[in-house]
Amino acid sequence: MPEFLSRRPARLALTLLAGAAAAGLCLLLRTPLPWMIGPLIATALGCMAGLPLAAATPLRNAGQWAIGTVLGLYFTPQVVGIVASHWAVILAGIAWALLLGAGFGAYLARANAGMALDRPTLFFASAIGGASEMAVLAERFGGRMDLVASAHSLRILLVVLTIPFGFQFAGLHGLDPTLPGPQVVEWHGLLQLIAMTAAGGAFLRWRGVSNPWVLGPLFVAFGLTATGVELSALPKWMTNLGQLFIGVALGTRFTPAFLHTAPRWLLSVGVGTLVMIALSAGFALGVAQLSGLHPATVLLGTSPGGIAEMCLTAKVLELGVPVVTAFHVTRMAAVVLLASPMFRWSAPAG
């Protein structure tokens, strides 16, 4: 390895250049979410091949800030009323996530019976919640943090690659469009928006809230837009950079050691994730029939993916951004809050 690549800034620069080049290739190929999927695939393959790639937490936070802010700008007063009218469906989505996680855990235990896995590892690896939060909880209760982190990383990767490409193949885009409140970039208003949403993220980070750099900006932008305050739209290049930073952060989780992490475990996680996607598609069809929402919107809201990735897919493909966001925000909050109590309640007697 050249000496200059041993320095972290050079590795970061190489990673971003590789990610940007992959995004450009995906633009030429007209793939869905080119600015996230291109960098994700390129960095994941590069890292697993042993290339000196790296991500930076501040850049990941900046990417999450951009996505959280742009999602919050969709919640005009009229849209808030529409989302509120679907409260029962959103609660059903929370129940579905908990049920899906329980079934996934039972499957992982059966598929890996020979590994003698402990209960914390199985429970927190199968919870459909934040990857970092579940890994930390697993370690706190004595589980294997490496297996939990690898399970969530692989689950999110498969969801991000499967659903957007599936929707593009099926021609599902622009079927449930919602426009953000502010449509024009006003530079003075943009500076105010950046300052206020960044303060929201910093506050939630200080309070120890999960996903602060998505939720803080989202809640601030939501509050402004819902009350009719439209400071500025977010420039497209900012959301593209946000996708690039998130894609790189996801891709660099896949180190060379990842492929050697209990291959049977990874195979079972992969198969189980695909089954969960199929089950979620069936659930989405049923809920769509009862609620009047488009099935693609419900699937994005109830799929076993992450909040930033699935809400971003909804934005790019114009598939009910506010409803999908409401699904994921409430689900994430419920899973993170309930994971520890449910783990204790499910402990066998004696």
The percent of residues in helical segments reads: over 70%
CA-atom Rg in angstroms: 20 Å
Q: Count every beta strand, where a strand is a DSSP E run of 2 or more residues.
A: 0
Q: What spatial form do the alpha-carbon principal axes imply?
A: globular
SSE series: HHHHHHHHHHHHHHH
Uncertain regions: pLDDT < 50 for 5+ in a row?
none
What distance separates the N and C termini?
Answer: 55 Å
What multimeric state do the chains show? single chain
Q: Helix/strand-derived class?
A: mainly alpha
Largest sheet: none
- Beta strand %: under 5%
- What does the average pLDDT come to? 90
- The total of helices stands at 15
Overview of this protein structure:
This protein has 350 residues and is mainly alpha-helical. The protein has 15 helices and no strands. The longest helix is centred in the C-terminal third of the chain and has 29 residues. The termini are far apart. The mean pLDDT is 90.
